Fold this protein.
Amino acid sequence: MMWETDKPLRGYNTFGIAAKAAYFLPVVDLAGLEYAMREQPAPFFILGGGSNVLFTGDLPAAVLANRIQGIEVLHENEDEVKIAVGAGMRWHDLVTWSVERGYGGLENLSLIPGQVGAAPIQNIGAYGVEVSSAIEAVDAYDLDQGEVLRFPASVCEFGYRTSIFKTTYRNKLFILRVYFRLLRRPVLHMDYGAIREELNKMGVATPDVRGISQAVIRIRQSKLPDPLLIGNAGSFFKNPTVSQDVYDAFLHRHPGIPGFPAEDGRMKIPAAWFIDHLGWKGYRMGDAGVHDRHALVLVNYGDATGQDILQLATAIQGSVYEAFGIRLEPEVNIIG
Ligand code: FAD
Ligand code: EPU
C-alpha cells in the first residue's frame, strides 16, 4: 500500500477533466482506510466512479479511490432478499446482478454510471424511482473518529438528489457498504410515460424487471451522451421546484411548459426546458458545450478545463435567472 503522487485524474472523472491529485490511494478494504488515516498526507477527498464531479483545478488532496467490492446475501425468504454490497462496486453491475435474478427494486435505475457507495449520497433517481426506496442502511467509516457507523435509512434524510451524506456529513464519511432490500415479487414502476412507450416499441406485452431494465437502457442510450465518447456528468443542474401559483403564472406566459407534482404541493419544472428555451442547446464555447440532444447536459468536447465548464454553467445560471427569476442549483459536485 503506497500513496501515488501527482496522479493524473483524466481517466477517473467522466467529464474527462485533466486535473491532478497531490496524493492518490486505491482503497480495497478497511485496512486501507486505517493506513490512510495513519499516513494522511493532505485533507482527504473520496472518489467513486467520478461521474458526478467537476474538478476546477488540481486537487491538493489525498484522494481515496473506493475499490471495495462484493455482494453478500444476508437473508432471503419468499418475499424478499436482503443484501450487503461493497461501496466500490459499479452501480450497473449490481443492477444487472439483481435483474438477472428477477429481483425487483433497482431496474428503473439501470445504466446510471458510478459506484454503489455514491448512490445514497445524492439518492440517485431515474424513471420514477429513487434508490432510497430499496436502501435499508449504510455503513460508513468516520474519517474524524476512525470508527465504523451504521445509518439506518430512517436517519439518512433522503430527498430529491440529497441525503445526510451530501449535507451534514459531506466528505466526513467514507461509505463502505450499502444494505438493500430487493423484492422477489417485484412491483413494477411504469408511470413514467416513456417506459410504456418503449415497451410497446420493443413488443413487450407483459413486462417484468428485465423488460423494464431493457426499456430504461434503450431510452437512456437515445437521450444521454456516453461519457466514453463525450465527457459529461449527466444532468448538470437539479430540476427546480416552484409553488403552484408561480407555476400557473409560467403556464399562462408559456403555454405547454412542462411541470410535475413535487413534494409539499410544489411543481417541478425541468431545468432543461429553461435552458433550451433560451437557445443554449448545442452552444459551444471552446471545448465546453451544451449537448445538442439534451440541454441539461454540459459536455467536454476534448480539452475543456474544469474552469471552462464552470464558466459556461455560470453563464447559463445567469441567463436563466435574468429571463425567469429561477436560480438553478448544480447537481454536480464542484470540487476545488
Ligand atoms: P463520484 O462522482 O465519484 O462522487 C460523487 C460525490 O460523492 C463526491 O462528492 C464524492 O466525494 C462522494 N463519494 C463518492 N463515493 C463515496 C464514498 N464511498 N463515500 C463517501 N463519499 C463518496 N444520477 C442520477 O441520480 N440519476 C441519473 O439518471 C443519472 N444519470 C447520469 C448519466 C450520466 C451519463 C452521467 C455521467 C451521470 C449520471 N448521474 C445520474 C450522476 C451520477 O451517475 C450519480 O450521481 C452517481 O451516483 C455518482 O457516482 P460516482 O461513484 O461516480 O460518484
Ligand atoms: N427538455 C427540454 N429540452 C431538452 C431536454 C429536455 O425542454 O433538451 C424538457 C422536456 O420537456 C422533457 C423534460 O425536459 O420532457 C424532462 O427531460 P428528461 O425526461 O430528459 O428528464 P430530466 O428532467 O432532464 C431527470 C434527471 C435525470 C434522469 C431523468 C429520467 C434531474 C436533474 N435529472 O432528467 O438524472 O435520468 O430525469 O428520470 O433530476 C442525473 O441526475 O444526472 C440524471 C441524468
The mean pLDDT is 97. Residues 126-127, 223, 234-235, 238-239, 258, 270, 272-273, 276, 281, 294-296, 331 surround EPU (ligand 2) (CB under 6 Å).
